[in-house]
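Q: Start with the shorter request: fold the first protein.
A: Done. Sequence, then structure:
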Amino acid sequence: MSRRKERQRLIRAYKEETKVTEIDMRKVALWAVKRGWPLPTPPDPIDLLTKQFSDDAREVISYDKTTGKPYRVYHAVKQAHGGTQLHFFVDIEEATRPQMHMSLYNRREQMVSDGVMLTYDQDHWNAAHPSEEPIQMVLDLAFDIELRKSADDRDDKAA
């Protein structure tokens, strides 16, 4: 059994033992350690710093000189090279069309994956609670996106 599957089994055991319905994962971790679950090896400091730089790069926002609208400066790109997957960032001003297309395509695919899982979750909850009004999430986000894009510029800069 994989470590992930074992941790998932422990979450269920914790829930069954404690009878909680709102699960605090820190409490689960402490519970598991008391039962002999080994603490993970701390990450390599360079790997941790790399992740911090990557997370921070994703949050760098600049503003279009013409429209004043925000945009992300750095975009993640995944590229296969010699059988390995390379991950790097490109500045939007310097990105080639293929790099930018790949970055945007990957982000769109993440949104699609989230939407698929959201509908599975919604459908399951609705089936498990037939006496309650079904939850129906609208997945066409075009209207919501346009609303936010047309919001007061001060809202964009505050976000």
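Q: Next, the second protein, separately.
A: Sequence, then structure:
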Amino acid sequence: MKPGTPWLLGLDLGGTRLKALSITPDGCEITRITAPTSGDDWKSNVKSCVNRLIRSHGTPAAIGVAAPGLAALDQRAIAHMSGRLPGLEGLDWQQFLEFGKPVPVLNDAHAALLGEAWLGAAKGLKNVALLTLGTGVGGAILADGRLFRGHIGRAGHLGHISIHSDGPPDIVHTPGSLEDAVGNHTLPTRSGGKFHCTADLVAAAKSGDASATAIWQTTIRDLAAGIASLINILDPEAIVIGGGIAEAGDDLFQPLARELDRVEWRPANHRVPILPATLAHWAGATGAAKYPNSEL
């Protein structure tokens, strides 16, 4: 990068590591670096990463932060996030980073969708929903070209829709949620302790394990039911699916397409495309970098 070239900094703060991305305003990536966040010194690790990039590139034109939890209405901090990353709640990122401009903060799934809308699978689309399938199920909504936040910033928690009304309550008290039906965190319970990650479940199903096949088929049915419900509510141009479970590739997307053939409402034979996310683990950092200078 030539000295003086404007650049943006996106920080994606997770429970185990920080992903820091430097990128030009037109979307040319410069540098990716990571740092651990699992210890009590996560704040110092974040500052070290930022200072390292500033020493290398100069002062960024803008900084954005993606983090788990609900962003404050003024977008200066995460307002609600308990149980992880002590000190994150209420942390004013502009003050913390001693930056001369506001440092907007947004939910990590919201940031991931903005990244996919800027440079990834949702580029050029105006009405899109994102599902991130991993330990849990995250989500975000782009409505008429703008990130839909809702009244208190809670919009987009798509994993907490109910697909089994008589199911046990999930972490936010939703009965029989999509997150509990397909997330990795419940797989040991769903499989009677036999499987602990979806990759192992899919591998066993492909090898002919009957119990693994049955569990995976149930997972696909539940996911399709959730997606069909979201399609009816949002009428999106596409649904983007990312996260670790999406790395199953055709083993996920092909049976999911067949199940949606059965359950999706398709007026005039209109099928909503189901698209794999393309930015992988860097979607959140990409969206965070874009956010300060976006209209989204």
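Q: Describe the second briefly.
A: The mean pLDDT is 94. Residues 36 and 136 are 21 Å apart (CA to CA).
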